[in-house]
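Large ribosomal subunit protein uL15m
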Amino acid sequence: MSSGLRGKNISETALTWLKSLPRISLKNLREEPGQNVKYKRARGRYGGKTHGCMPKKNPQRQIFPRPGWEGGQTPFYLKFTKEPYYKGHHLKRQYPPLSLLYIQKLIDTNRLDTSGLIDISSLCKSGLVKFLPEEKHYGFQLTDEGIDKFAAKIDIEIQYAPEHVIAAIERLGGSVTLAYYDFHSLLALKNPLKFFQKGEPIPKRMMPPADAIEMYTDPKQRGYLADPQAVEYERGVLAQKYGYDLVIRKPPIRKDPLQIFLGLHPGWVVNLKDKTILKPKDPEIIKYYSSS
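Structure:
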């Protein structure tokens, strides 16, 4: 009996001590010997090269690298494998969409002249069409938005158009021509005034690349390198397919495959000051600009 009371008293005494003793925490833990030694800044060579401070470089002078900068010797496109999906992506030609509804609005607001040829130059002249050759824009593609409301007879030169869009234009007596322009020709077409102010001869239009030859020589797609008789035959086939009668019309307004501007041949120089056109007379120069 006495031993039980004695054990009970010992446990109660231990619990009483635990209640009064401090708890172990980060505040009352003693540091190891030599862990935090206060450094006294010395003078001269005894303080080291920078006396414990960082050297004065770009971060201390608030000079930070530009956004997107990546340090090291190996750029990111060499660290990781390149997927074949992006092979030649920077060389792909882009064709911004241009709907029939938007063309009809430009015609209704007198932004486009339907008596002449509608090409890249006339579209850029309207000031309402975004065209950036430096971003691989190689022309426009016609879309079928507003195809039921389109009611204009036009001769348009475009870079891509589906079959039903071609039928919608030819049903009204118009014509569609798919034409290719190289980069330098596109720069001249975007701003003809800027090009003529340079006083340079008009360059000749280059032939389309190998992957585009088939499209621009196909009479079904109204390619500018296709046979005109084959194009007329395909116009009749398309009219029978969509159930409309061909409209008797004059020959469509078209450019020569080497021409950039309608009515101006390669090699000519336009003098804006005197309002004259200078034509070459050297047979070799004439032969160069007349050959593809």
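The beta strands are 97-99, 117-118, 141-143, 155-158, 175-178, 269-271, 276-278.
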